[in-house]
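Attaching the record inline, Q. Sequence:
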Amino acid sequence: MTLAIVILNWNGKKLLEQFLPSVVRYSPEGQLYIVDNASTDDSLDFVRTHFPEIHIVENPTNSGYAGGYNRALQHIKADVYCLLNSDVLVTEGWLSPILRTFEEERIAVVQPKIKDEKRRTHFEYAGAAGGFIDRYGFPYCRGRVFETIEEDKGQYNESFPVPIFWASGACFFIRAEVFHQLGGFDEDFFAHQEEIDLCWRVHHLGKQVVYCSESTVYHVGGATLTAANPKKTYLNFRNSLFMLLKNLPAKGLYTTIFLRMVLDGIAGVRFLLQGKPRFTWEVIRAHFHFYKRFFFFKKKRPSKLITNYYQVKSIVWEYFALGVRG
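Structure, as predicted:
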């Protein structure tokens, strides 16, 4: 089984200096690639000078996470792709358990345990021990619900692959055949939640997405776009609505989207009360963009849709009203 480890870069020299050495050192099973999204710094010169063995794919424009990977993976041949953020520290032996997991043919996507590089005793926000969504498309993870992040005490150390709904784009393993069969990431997302959308489409194929606790990586998180950036709020709210329209079962489609938009409105009011009017505006802007492209995204609905996609009806209700934290 051949493996390509593909790192997307945009003006990320400092991140490559810090984290690329661990990837080179601990990844003898894989062929390494840097995909550059039209950087204007000297990050590629750094790679060519210090890691001449790494292949470089140069995209002519910055087409985001989704477009950047889609374009590059057209030219990279392997059985399995590892899409790895440039701010991830990998550990010795991280690849062997993942490759063993792919021996099961129904498994199409695998995520390792993702912990916080800055607080290594705890899980990391962007993936933790595997992701899920509630009925209204709000994502959460085993080990992370909204801003509550658990300490890793071995509570998710299963000795077998655990089915999850989505795997984090910070460290995302996928069969190349499945990636190309689905047309890759939806480039209209640009960035954020495109990996959840892709995993949802993997489920439509009858394939599995799993978590592998025997492999561990450490992620900085927010290195390219922090949570304090209003653009991140806009992308998350907009893309979540796009994802629901594309993938929800036909029964209850419009009711679910309407209720989700009501919850978004409540979030917008909450931002306002917190003294963050710019974030409220980004929620509004996300909704207007959703209205504008409603019929465009509706046409993307696949013919075969899974009907059981959530385990928790409303993670918002459980977290904020009932005080459930894990």
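The two ends are 37 Å apart (CA to CA). The chain has a mean pLDDT of 96.

More tomorrow.
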